[in-house]
Amino acid sequence: MRRLPIYFLIDISESMVGEPIQQVEEGLATIIQALKTDPHALETVYVSIIVFAGQPKTLVPLQEIVSFYPPKFPIGSGTSLSKGLGHLMYELRSNIVKTTYEVKGDWKPIVFLFTDGVPTDDTQAAISEWKNNWQRTANLIAVSFGNETDTKLLGQLTENVLHFKNTNVQSYKEFFKWVTDSIKTSSISVENNSSGFELAKLDGETISKIDLTKEEPNKQYVDDNYVVLSGKCQNTKRPYLMKYRKNIAPSIYAGIELASKNYKLVGAYQVDNNYFELADNSNFNNKVNTEELFGAPTCPCCGNQIAFAVCVCQKIHCIGDEQISTCPWCNNQGSYGYGEGGFDVNRTQG
Amino acid sequence: MEETKRYLQSLLFQNKIDIPESKQTLFEDFINNENNITAVKIIKEKQRMIMQNWNLKNRIDDITHQSVFLPNGTVNKIYEAKIDFAQLGWIDFTSFEIQNLEETGLTFDHDSKLLFGIPIISGDLKIKLLFKIEGESEETPFHEKIMTVIVNPDPKSLWKNIESDRNAPFAKDDHVAISSTFLDKKIVVASKRGRSHANVGSFREDDFAFKNLDSNGWSVLGVSDGAGSAALSRKGSKLACDTVVDYFEQNLDKENLKDFDEILLEHYKKTDLETSKKISHFVYNTLLKAAHFVNQKIEEFAGNIDEELKKFHATLIFALVKKYDFGYAILTFGVGDCPIGLLNKDLTEVTLMNFIDVGEFGGGTRFITMPEIFQSEKLSSRFGFKLVDDFSYLMLMTDGIYDPKFVVEANLEKIEKWNEFLSDLKGNNQDNSKVDFDDENGDVAAQLSNWMDFWSPGNHDDRTLAIIY
Ligand SMILES: [Zn+2]
Ligand SMILES: [Zn+2]
């Protein structure tokens, strides 16, 4: 039997924290569930999930869908597309079977790349390796989540660059249905001796193809669409993230233009310790001024009123009513007062 | 007493109240006050309780969010999974039970913590674990944790069998099975629509044709596999087989054949380079013309009805066989991934009569409808010739049989694999489905057709198998 290998290469940088990653998590589970109702897919599709933030990781090694169990997605710091691609190519090299005299080869593998941001590292080497060694042997579909992905860059990987408007739960559902349909059609078309890949019909509303000739390149190494701050809970010692989304509309109040750029709180989320494992090790020093941030969350781990206390070590943790707080990062003890005005805090790479 | 003192001291200190020397006695009295002692005691207790409650809450939250992996099951297949409490760290459970198993076909054994049974419904079953942990009182209600057991559908149940449209152009039967004579031997052929086509009500794309050409003593058999991606391949494959039979019927001219009969006799008596060359020459010329003719005919047909040639893509293998006093001459040609196997009389040797076209990844085969095959340097490898005293089986098959039964090209060269295949045909299979190759068996076609219904996951192509025996 020939396998049809499907790879999902998924960006799990901080900006995906909260609803997006939850939707991806549920979405993939739905994809597999739906594929199981299709007899072709059930018998031929093999799935692998690779995630990347600052570091890449194989979350689900290539396996048939009957043994697939939906994984919990971690969140990491940074968006190292080059490491993600490198890891993908490593997995393809080690798993894809070519037809030889003695071995039954696979169908041409299909890769879905989901990313919502701008790579935080230099991707040229990985992209040329992809072009030279894999562009013809695998079908890659790059899907940009949200508005400000570097689509020019994705366009170097594949001509299939799609834009997904992740506006609400329903659009996620439609999106994952589209992915499922694409896999279903291709699990038939490969069987029918064609080596091409057919995408399901695009509705143009939720998912649309990007005209690569029009987009301007985006060359920044910090994802500017979101500000994500990482903290640690004083009570539980667990990491959490606070996510702020850039305000798109200019905020004019009583005829006075406020700060040209500001970020509004989306929410605070508990993350597990994988966060550190998947983070970029290099030391980044990106600051954001608290004046630009609107809204302060409570601690998502213990419910403490203030999740946004900054220790002398520059790191963020939660505080409650206690007189003396202990910083869970550096164990420094001290008491906190409310700061006046804005101050700079470290933000993550996104 | 010490405790009360320390507590009150720090309370006052935290409220920025200092106790001067002059007030020490007053403070001593204060801490000895029964009310205060009790109050501190109560505060301490309440704090302990708060801490404990927090720890419990935290622990329960951890358990509810903990991911528990349960192996996947399949409908109608025995399922068994142990929920390993120790490994999950659930050593602080004081009581628990499992719910939501009704109508799933699964049962949970409380003592062995075994989840088992035969699943009767597919889907992501949400199983509820109710639990209480140490430190909680009797009256505390159970906490809930949802665990997922994924039950896969039985793949067989998902395939539909929709009849093809009898009124569509070039409609053909979904199944054909036939037996007859071939030279002085028997032939049985069955051709069956694959599950992938049955599932959507499309046509069988395989085809075959054979004929005993009485006028010149030759018999010819062709088998073709229409390309799935080609819309009219059902016609392409039929044209390929019919045309090759027609060609030999009309074009094997007697003069030429007489020469060939002589060369063969010469070759039989004394095999040398000279006779081998002459044979190669004849095989090459005669069969190439036939193959080329097929290519031309299909192109012509497509042109006449104003359709693209590629819509008719089909592979083609054929064998031309003649019986002589000294044995059988077998001439073959093949384009595509369908093998021709010749098994010797005592089943100790197999000769693979053709070269198989397979791509690096799946689906890279070649078709008789591609003009470029006649220009390729591989062309000469498409021809086969063998002169044998006798043989037990000559088999032509499409990849619908070859893929599930031989899997890879290398196996086609192995006599053990062919013997396994024969033993399978003779009833050594899951369904006890049997083909009786006795000369007198009038049921052989139905038996072969029946045998061809074998189940093989991932292999749902059309199946065609022709056996001369
Ligand atoms: Zn906290
Ligand atoms: Zn600190």
Automatic annotation (TrEMBL), chain A:
It holds the Pfam family TerY_C. InterPro entries: TerY-C, VWF_A, vWFA_dom_sf. It comes from the Bacteria. Residues 5-183 form the VWFA domain. Coiled coil: none annotated. SMART domains: VWA. This is VWA domain-containing protein. The lineage of its organism: Bacteria, Pseudomonadati, Bacteroidota, Flavobacteriia, Flavobacteriales.
UniProtKB/TrEMBL annotation, chain B:
Pfam families: PP2C_2. It comes from the Bacteria. Transmembrane segments: none annotated. Residues 180-468 form the PPM-type phosphatase domain. This is Protein phosphatase 2C domain-containing protein. It comes from Flavobacterium fluviale. The lineage of its organism: Bacteria, Pseudomonadati, Bacteroidota, Flavobacteriia, Flavobacteriales.
